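Example 5.3 — FMN-binding domain-containing protein
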Amino acid sequence: MKYPKLILTALVAVIALVFSRDILQGSIAFSAESTKNPRSAETSNLSTYLTPELVKMIFPEAERFGDIEGSPPSAPVFRGDTLLGYVFETYDLVQGVGFSKRPFHILVGMDLSGFVTGVRLMHHVEPIAILGRTDEDFHQYLTQ
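Solution (predicted structure tokens):
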């Protein structure tokens, strides 16, 4: 049985509220969890997901990306020698979890102006299949 797009919208809205809550807490206290266990390039999953093909999806103008550095970790993205922006994983930033109490692994591209250039869900264990939706439905929603 297929559910209307409204159900997917509601699911993503709930996910956004979880992230918003964590971002708000983070802006006040940088999140208690991340203060206890700050994410670094060594503990991040970013290197697991980061490939030239993925960077091209998130940053269409990109030709290459640099080393993952910092806390929270990010990778610089370049066209030639020109820095375009950075790619990071949301879990390294807010350590937000979903309904299943397990993390979402979402990669985000952000240019030097703070504009989000692309988003890609890499991994989750949420039970969205019970709503008749697929990961591709979620990917399509994120590209809006």
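Remark. The chain has six helices and five strands.
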